[in-house]
Amino acid sequence: MPREITAFSNPLIKRVRNLREKRHRREEGLFLAEGLRILAEADEAGILPDYLFFAADSAAHPIVRRLTATVEASGGEAIQTSRDILHKLSGKDNPQVVLGVYRQFDTDLARIDRTASGIWLVGQAIRDPGNLGTMLRTGDAVGAGGLILIDDTVDPFSVEAVRASMGAMFTQRIAQTRWEEFLPWLRSGPGQLVGLSLEASEHYRRPHYEAPTFLLVGNEAQGLPADYAAACDLRVKIPMLGKADSLNAAVSCAVMAYEVLGQRQG
Known about the structure:
Blueprint: E1 3-4, H1 11-17, H2 22-28, E2 30-34, H3 36-44, E3 51-55, H4 62-73, E4 77-81, H5 83-90, E5 98-103, E6 119-124, H6 129-142, E7 146-150, H7 159-165, E8 173-177, H8 179-187, E9 192-196, E10 202-203, E11 213-217, H9 226-230, E12 234-237, H10 249-264
Parallel strand pairs: 1-4, 3-4, 6-7, 6-11, 7-8, 9-11, 9-12, 10-12
Antiparallel strand pairs: 2-5, 3-5
């Protein structure tokens, strides 16, 4: 039976609210996800929150009822609260009716099984949580194995990145590493590293992409460092026919991912 929390001063409310900050997420090993769609995606992937908060006026919603029963059956705790408290937890003026507190995933590169998919996305120094979330959604859409984050990137467990992923972070593997660790790992097994660079001369639709293909996209402002690009098996570019000098990093990643998928589907 869900317990009810209505006081802002409740210790659990304070603890969960702190998860909006990276330092507390790291210390606790927890992160926040909000919204019926995202929590339902997580449930379908077999991932359940330690804590499920839901607004009192949404208790009868069929998805909320199902989530409540599933979380409690798994040993988690369901908590009924007010929308004001949900606002305090999420930081949004118009909070969703449900919010979950999840265990952070193991992002060790060694846990990646490269044979699990023919497409992997790799982001170097991605700083925008919206781009990171969109790359996860792209990975889910094309059946990629996951997203490998290289060097100093935005926290994939931030509220903004989780929100932007629209549930894809629960369907995609996420790894975090440094370039000097990633490259030896990649070369220890099969894998074609394809770098997307404005400096490349090869049109992105010309090469044949070999599985597993690792699509490497650089930082939003700086692009790929020259030595990273030089280490790639292929360097390709997406032609720009208008006045803009480049595409958004996540959009570029999506264009490339669908080209690789299109080749695989014949």
